[in-house]
Write a structure and sequence with these properties.
5 helices, 155 residues, elongated, 47% helix, alpha/beta
Length: 155
């Protein structure tokens, strides 16, 4: 009787292993996709390279408002979340502490959603002076770094 139970347990174990192997193999193909073949990856990598190549144009005394502060921090720049632009108290503190403020119109400003809306609002309600811009050709998306020089008179 014990041998029969042992065979059943082995059969169940083999079946479980077979199911796990099948499930794993189903994910191999999606996991093996080259990142350059993922549509959004090209724009994100272009933007990241844009920041690496252009952040040196931003004076170290500036603060960058961005959706990706870490990207600027690792490039030696002070940065704050884009949402902090809309916090009057924080913005006033930043304006006192930093002689210049910069807007990063980066990758997340081109993705539909709240960050894109915030970027457009800032672009439409402030006076900006371009530091550097670049266009990602496949999509025509423009990325840019801009000095924030003040509010629009229309605001």
């Amino acid at each position: 009787m014990h041998a029969k139970n042992a065979y059943i347990e082995i059969a169940i174990a083999i079946e479980a292993l077979a199911l796990m192997a099948y499930a794993f193999s189903a994910f191999i193909v999606p996991l093996s996709v080259n990142p350059s073949n993922i549509p959004q990856a090209g724009g994100a990598r272009f933007y990241e390279n844009f920041v690496y190549n252009s952040s040196g144009l931003i004076p170290n005394s500036c603060l960058v408002f961005t959706a990706d502060p870490t990207l600027f921090n690792i490039n030696g720049k002070s940065a704050a979340q884009l949402d902090n632009f809309f916090n009057g108290r924080l913005y006033a503190e930043y304006a006192k502490e930093y002689p210049c403020l910069v807007l990063d119109v980066g990758y997340w400003c081109s993705v539909p959603g709240p960050i894109e809306s915030n970027c457009r609002y800032i672009q439409n309600h402030t006076v900006l002076k371009a530091i550097k811009t670049a266009v990602y050709s496949p999509s025509g998306t423009e990325y840019g770094l801009y000095y924030i020089e003040g509010q629009n008179n229309a605001s």
